[in-house]
Amino acid sequence: DPADVTLVMHGTVDRLYRLIEIAEVWSGPISMAVYAPMQDASFFDDAIDGLRLCWATLRKSVSFHLVHHVNSPANVTQLGSFVYLSCKDIIRRLRLVRPNAGRSQYPHNLLRNVGRSGALTNFVLHIDADLAPSRSLRGKFKELLKLHNLESGIAARLPVFELRQFQNPVRTKQELAEAIKERNAIPFLQETCVPCHRPTDYDRWLQSLKSDSNDSEMSYKVDYVKEWTPFFITSKHSPLYDDRFVAFGHDVLANICELQANGYEFHVLTHEFLIHNGYRTKSRMTEFERTRRDDRATFYDKFLQELRKIDYKHSKQNT
């Protein structure tokens, strides 16, 4: 059905197990691009067979796309073991695998674009494999499409929350409200990068947990802010991600700049959300994350330098 939304994901082979949970919750089309150079490609190809044998939802709804670097060609000579495993053993193998792919050369934006190319619906939601959608997100968005004539120039932003590790899964707004009340859930990157999601206006969104809003209040408009890196639903034909941007954080910022320069409006969905399993703490921050937190001016200046270096066509509108 073109009047639907495809969940577009990307990751390395150690994230394939996440599909089992996410596909059950999403219950709709998913397109996943996997970076699997060298022997990882064999594992990836083999794992697809096992996943499709054990989980009908994956067999029916998920399309897979292999990506590898030109200097690290795919090796698919070692195949065949997953079809002999039990479903329980398949999960175990997927959780234990360690990818050969180096994170330093991980082509985030190329993977996002490859994943989108596999979408057959009019709308797409790009997420990282570590996130999971609320159970009613897809259905509610389809209702929204019927009630309102959403234009292609709209980006429907989703609030994201971190769930304390080893807690029961949060799939509904009621479960989220309870988790927040018990201090088992917090806004995404609250400890490591507050500006990254501040424009979402979490205080306003959290007020909706205390009331039953009608359909006319399904979203609210927010302004573009230069450091914002949201997750959102948008038209499949919205600007693609620029794969020339590879530095941490710059990859997503470039796309947000592109949308803003093209006149897109950002609306936050009032009733739906994404969940990240586990808190993002300061003690586990990468060097890039620390630089972004501690020296925001330098981080953004480097981003602007990168824009100018590649003669990015919208750099002047977004500085």
TrEMBL record:
Q: Which PANTHER family match?
A: BETA-1,4-GLUCURONYLTRANSFERASE 1
Q: Which Pfam families match?
A: Glyco_transf_49
* Cofactor(s) named in the record: Mn(2+)
UniProt-recorded Gene Ontology molecular function terms: glucuronosyltransferase activity; metal ion binding
The entry's protein name is Beta-1,4-glucuronyltransferase 1
Which family does the UniProt entry place this protein in?
Belongs to the glycosyltransferase 49 family.
Classify the main location: Golgi
What keywords is this UniProt entry annotated with? Glycoprotein, Glycosyltransferase, Golgi apparatus, Manganese, Membrane, Metal-binding, Signal-anchor, Transferase, Transmembrane, Transmembrane helix
Membrane topology reported for the UniProt record: Single-pass type II membrane protein
Q: Among the entry's GO cellular component annotations, what is one?
A: Golgi apparatus
**Pathway assigned in UniProt:** Protein modification; protein glycosylation
> TM spans, by residue?
none
What is the catalytic activity of this protein?
Answer: 3-O-[beta-D-Xyl-(1->4)-Rib-ol-P-Rib-ol-P-3-beta-D-GalNAc-(1->3)-beta-D-GlcNAc-(1->4)-(O-6-P-alpha-D-Man)]-Thr-[protein] + UDP-alpha-D-glucuronate = 3-O-[beta-D-GlcA-(1->3)-beta-D-Xyl-(1->4)-Rib-ol-P-Rib-ol-P-3-beta-D-GalNAc-(1->3)-beta-D-GlcNAc-(1->4)-(O-6-P-alpha-D-Man)]-Thr-[protein] + UDP + H(+)
What InterPro entries does the annotation carry? B4GAT1
Report the record's Gene Ontology biological process terms.
protein O-linked glycosylation via mannose
